[in-house]
Batch of 3 targets.
Target 1
Amino acid sequence: MTIKSFLNELEEILLSDDELTLDSDLTAIEEWDSLAVMSVMSLFQEKLSIVLTTADFKNIKTPNDIILLSKGKIA
Amino acid sequence: MKKIIIKDFTLLNKNEQKIVFEARNSKKVRAFCLDERVISFDEHLAFLKSLKHTNDKKYYLILLDDECLCVINFIKMGEKYNNGIYKISKKHIFIMDIIVLCTQMILNHILNQNSCIFEILRKNKALLNYHLMQKTPIYTQDDTCVTFLGSFNDDYVNTQIKSTKSLIGDFTLNIKTPNKTIEIL
């Protein structure tokens, strides 16, 4: 998966009208909540075959932090 | 140490009643409710009062320390309970883990059940994906809803306790019912 397509998927999950960047502050976005985390977990499992838990998101602040969880599968 | 409290709706104080009322009427919660109407505060109070006289509907407010996190409800459908949830706090990404843990605790300690039904509207994609990801068995489905049958055993509960600890640290868990307070953890 490309970084661009991941950011597009994330914008859709967050129902964001603004374009996300790698450094966007997710913690400032109201839609970044437990349901959004579940959607990202689902995306990782479906598209990247990576199983994440909520604990993996404990310190996530930006889209780039999420990309690091993909271990190179989003590039 | 953090404190998780599962509080029966009939025991809510005035502030908690107001917080739940505002959450229930919020656009986001109503969008995923079977009844999408905005309700009045009088209707809300009448509903809370009605819960004192039925065993077929159980509603609980989940608090983390003094913060209202979410609502979990159970409605009896034949032999099983149909589980519903809505969140109140927007701040925490781990609410779902606490919801799962509290659901298991209520089923085990209050309702004496080891399974329940989750009826999810298809438009609630995040929650639908969550159950599909968890491989929760599908019970029935139609164009609007998918119902899943969730079962819990001790291993599952222990895993959930461990997972919740990894997210919020050590915690206690109490259930407050009209008759008694049960100290679970």
Target 2
Amino acid sequence: MTSVTPQRLKRRQDVVTDGNQQAKILSNAPDAREGFFAVPKVVE
Amino acid sequence: MSELNKLGLGAARDALRAGEITSVDLTKACLEAIEGAGALNAFVHKTPEVALERAKAADERLQAGDAPDMCGLPIGIKDLFCTKGVPSQAGSRILQGFLPEYESTVSQNLQDAGAVMLGKLNMDEFAMGSSNETSTYGDVTSPWRRGNDDAALTPGGSSGGSAAAVSADLCLAATGTDTGGSIRLPASANGVVGLKTTAGLVSRYGIMPVSYTMDTVGPLTRTVEDCARITGVIAGRDENDPTTSTRPVPDYEAALAQGIKGLKIGIPRNYYYDIATDEIRALMDDSLSVLRDLGAELIHVDLPDMERITHLSNVTFVCEAAAVHEPWMRERPDDYQEQVRSRYEPGLHLPATAYIQALDARPRALKSFVDQVFSKVDLLHVPGVPFAIPTRAETNVAASSQMPTMIATISWCTRATNYLGIPAISIPCGFTANGLPTTFQLTGRPFAEETLMAAGHAYQGATDWHTRAPGI
């Protein structure tokens, strides 16, 4: 839509704005152990 | 005051601010209505505890004189939106048990504005349908019936639960999403107002994607006034959705006063009426007469090749949807409804060139549409759905050979809009001979929501279709 209405692209500071949510990220995993996603072994 | 759940957002807000009612009473009235309307299957995750807790908090804010726009107003949220700690399954079996750790921007904005969430609303699985019969929670049934015929009707889709709930007064307003007509089709089938916003007006953060370059978010309400009230709350720049526009959000409610006088409204010479029934044509003509009597100038316009635009919209849709779902389709094909899977599958077999060409043609299609249409008129008036709403039996893919045609044709008047990214509003404009609601759409230039709503509001000031309630 930038070509239809005049608007300047939004900018932000180049800094980390997100992170440190290991528990939240793993909360819906089918299996999680010691802070990691746990998946079936694929290499014997 | 009786039947609080039937109040509009404006009337309820005024009564709350004047201290005539409390949000707790209003919320309880809605929760009671929801309990009594189980047959519609509109609310699939009810959150009465969350609702009453937020209603109490809203009452405290109201008493303290710190009441934001939506303070204490009970609404429903489509299941496609992630809501923290509340199931958000997109109507699918695949997301069963998923409890989001975060809130979609739209539901967060509504919550911040004081709105009370009553629960999550049923929808077609992954928003891939137009009839609300692919949900893992079972079909939604329209609150409307054909005359004295008891046959269950489709509420349209995919935001069918949202439209049915608003139409049956289970909530004051609801959120919806529209990728090819998913707000406007159910608005039409249920006789409510639905707004498909300009691409980039409302954040999609926290909403399960369908076709990410065409997905848009908008409200379903009983009146255009309510549509304006809620759109102002959900619209605007969001750091979490880089596709949102930096354009300042206008005061939509104030813009309603702009009225319709002197607006040029276009009537399409080609495409939109190609498959419309005589009955729908007559209803559209009636609504145009009302708009003309209100001071609009009606002008016939030639449109670009809309069949091609609709085709490109479909290519974009199936390719993007297949890209999102390909891993699940490979690993859990049986957890999809067959009708939904069969709609994604073409996207797996189209060459990348077809998708790239569809995206490449998009800016030029928008330019030619704007040049040909919006250089001559302010708004374009088109039908919502080109025929009367079908029954469940008629939309059932297993029972009816008509179903594939039905899917293609029910969205005849809506698909192109999403490819072009322009806004469109559906407004109730009367009933077919068998007693079912229908709508017209007004579309406009990108970010013309104020004009759309001002014209729609003027129309509702002169008509009472939006006040008709379903019999059950």
Target 3
Amino acid sequence: MRFFNRFKNQLTWVVITSLIVLAVFIGNNRSEQSKIQLLQSNLSEYDLAIRPVNENKWIAKENSSIFYLGNGLGYNGEVKLIIQIDSDSIIKKIIPVYHQETPSYFNKIIKKHLFDRFTGKNISAFQTNQPVDIISGATITSKAIINAVKDGYVKGENLRILEKEKIPIFGLLEVIILFLFMASWLLIKVKKIKVKKIIRSISIFISVVFLGFIYNQPLTYSRLTAFLLGNRPDFYKEIFFYILLTGSILFVLFTRKNVYCHSVCPFGAAQEILAKTGKAKVFRPAYYKKLKFVQRFIALVVILAALALNNPVIANYEIFSAFFQLTANFILFGILFIVIILSLFIKRPWCHFMCPIDSVFDYVKLTRKSFFGLWKK
Amino acid sequence: MEKVKTNTSGNKFKFVLIILALLMLVSHLVKQLIDSNKPKKEMIPNELPDNESSAKQQSVDSIWHNTEFVQD
């Protein structure tokens, strides 16, 4: 018992980490089988008179239509499409056969007739890495769809993609994230309350407007799950994700402070604004620790299920998209409504009692505590 | 010892709202878990044109298993 009390943090860390590693292992082994099975089951719906040319290309016997199967990397994982073209290489139809994107978001893309916008275009235009005029203000999912079309065509025809030299894209979003981290660092260092208040107001405004409403790129649990499952965002195109993730973890490791939730997260900032509006107070009831345990327990069970089933969508329960993009199912909108009401009375109810990202940084803190503590001993 | 009086009805209201939100969260997670185990047929929003689907000579399923791929 004394041993347990002495090494409680380390033992907790070992148990959680082992469970996560085990779930990743189960999930990765499961994925290799289930994706092919899933594809088969989707394709067997259609009894077509087609013959295979290679793994990515089929030809229909009746009207010389060609079918390509392509992959693109979306927000949570692979997006698989079948692309149907006619004998003149003109796209006739795009059929999504597999994806791991948030259902409500993917349905929104379907309702916007994104797939119809491909029809009538010559597929050879997709061989280059030049932007194809399909979508303006393309999101990660819609880019994944374009990349899947490219992938199907290039692999089906044994072509080489004509790529420009790969340079990490460092744009306004990356500058904003670096600014928010710098502001967080200043908030730790600066002592004057007046200066702190000014920095805080600016960072809240920038976080809500840019990271929330304009780019809608907060760290999400499903994306972290996808990352653990090996669906890593393209470093050259989504460098902001790596800055957010490594920056947030390094801050916890070196300063013990969860600056992501405190100063970077756009929904945290939105709750701050609501708290100011309703003159909300810090809420620390007697059962606070129990509620905190429930929050962490849900986060752990969810990530283990999502990893073991190789389905990051399961881990998608944040209300960020509901707030910033009005995209979610009715249950998440209901939760958002309750959180907005609560935010007027208590400070950051979502962060303190529900958000899984808060639990992620609690785990990083536990890592720090476990090993930095041992090192000191 | 006399207890310090706090706004308990207010706290109860907040507690009820938090629990309600947590229950909704759990129901959302259970729904997602059930949906993830369903066949993904509903992911296909549109169907192939009739002219292709009517010509039933060889199913895609059997083609999938056919390993005689022709190299370009």
